[in-house]
Amino acid sequence: MLKNDAASPSSVDQLAPDGHPFELTELHNKAGMSVTLMDWGATWLSAILPLKGGEKRELLLGCQTPADYLRQRAYLGATVGRYANRIAKAQITVEGETFHLIANQGENQLHGGPEGFHTRRWKKVKQDEKQVTYQLLSPDGDQGFPGNLTVEAQYLLTEDNRLEIHYQAQVDKSCPVNLTNHAYFNLDGEGIDVRAHRLQLFADRYLPSGSDGLPIGGLESVERTGMDFRQAKTLARDFLKDRCQQRVKGYDHAYLLHRTCGATESPAAHLWSSDNQVQMSVYTTAPALQLYSGNSLSGAPARNGGSYANYTGVALESEFLPDSPNHPEWPQPDCWLKPGKVYHSTTVYHFIAL
Question: I need a labelling partner for 182 at 20 to 30 A (CA). Which of 35, 60, 83, 148 fits?
Answer without folding.
Answer: 148
